Amino acid sequence: MLKQSLHQKLLQKLSPQQIQLMKLIQLPTQAFEERLKQEIEENPALDTGKEENDNFEDSYSNDTDYDDTGNEKIEAEDINIDEYLSDDEFPSYKMQSNNYSADDDEKHVPYAAGTSFHQSLKNQLNTFRIDDNERAIAEFLVGSIDDSGYIRRELLDLVDDLAFTQNIFTTEEEVKDILTKVVQKLDPIGVGALNLKDCLIIQLNSKPETKYRSLAIEILNESFDHFVKKHYQKLLEKFDLTEDELKEVISEISRLNPKPGSSYDGNNKIAEQIVPDFTIKITEGSLELTLNSRNAPELKVSREYNNMLKGYQDSKDKTKAQKDAVMFIKQKLDAAKWFIDAIKQRQQTLLITMNAIMQYQKEYFLTGDERKLKPMILKDIADDISMDVSTISRVANSKYVSTPYGTKLIKEFFSESMKNDQGEDVSTREIKKILETVITEENKKKPLTDEKLSKLLKEKGYPIARRTVAKYREQLDIPVARLRKEI
After folding, report:
1. What pLDDT, on a 0 to 100 scale, did the predictor assign at position 17?
2. pTM, whole model, 2 decimals?
3. CATH number assigned to the domain with residue range 417-484, chosen from the 4 options 3.10.129.10, 2.60.40.1120, 1.10.10.60, 1.20.58.100
4. CA-wise closest residue to 356 among 324, 395, 330
5. Domain boundaries defined on the chain
6. Looking at residue 430, what is its pLDDT?
7. What is the pLDDT of residue 14?
8. Which residues contact 444 (CB under 8 A, 6 or more apart)?
9. How many CB atoms lie within 10 A of CB 274?
10. 316 CB contacts (<8 Å, ≥6 apart)?
11. Is the pLDDT of residue 71 over 50?
């Protein structure tokens, strides 16, 4: 039996404008510029340019009604053109968003065209006298080389792939022969190696014959694990070497390239550019913050769309086609005004948030000393400027600030706090900096273990456990003591 009942629910919904604003806030400068271009292409009611603006007779009503899907309700008979065409001048901050300095030039980084890494390797195969079958196998091997220059697959798997994908039936011995006599002879030297050991030995074999070159090949062939793990004492005993001789061997190997593919000059990869979203300068002892709006175009509502509305209002006989056109125009004008308003709010939110971060870490920005960084979490800034933590996270995520001490990732200024031996809260960044300094100054012949590093930090007033030291060391990308050892 069906029963009817009445339920009361309280739901929190975000308006389309709020969603649009949140998406804009989290975009870094380059992605924001792309978003601007996309919006200009999609919305003909948005214009861009630096020309002087005419006065638009326009006003905007915020009393817009929406249906359950968030789309605006429009009735052709109820279109009130006066809401868009009144005698009052529409406020300029609603009509235009100037996102650049008048002195800013549009800057583009040119990239030279070149041959790709794999294409270069295939072109070099033309210098070898090989038959069609061998060439096909060689090209397949070249295609199996990764960007670092290695073939990271078993030869037997390559033999199977040649049979199934290229219809070439061969043997593991033939593939290995072509690999060593053809592919591993290509430039840069070392490409086509199956592992690091082979890569280093291939490069050493291409060098002129010397005492230490031969010794380096012997050590890599017979005691590669000892060398990689820096068991220098075992190497000295096994090969009956002096410390000076082992130093020469290590120096010989250290000049080799463990990733030959990445050194290829012809790689036409576009390096990711870091464009700072903010700039902090020190002017007469005080901090000055500016928002970087390079390449952001000037936006304004289209004059043509405004004129179309005027023409509709002045016409005596309003056809259905005209009413449909006006509804379309009204939607595009609303979207344009929302977008311009969202850009303004984005700029204000970014500046307010970054200014709060700058003031919170004022001592660091004035001195550049990372030990001056105060413990700071997202909630500290959110409480300071009365915003939500998620908004602060969107501002800090993937955004950079240019400082007198280099370009920094904003989220790096956030860190948890720990108490020192005096009960004061200190930033984990400060402890990491001290840990890094201690490791830099250690005796490389007897590097400090995590346990000893923990004791040293306790002596300096930072009581942290050995496992915490290990965690911070890994975050700083510093290897364990055994791998820091030098002869």
Report:
1. 67
2. 0.56
3. 1.10.10.60
4. 395
5. 15-67+77-99+269-414, 117-263, 417-484
6. 78
7. 61
8. 484, 485, 486
9. 13
10. none
11. no
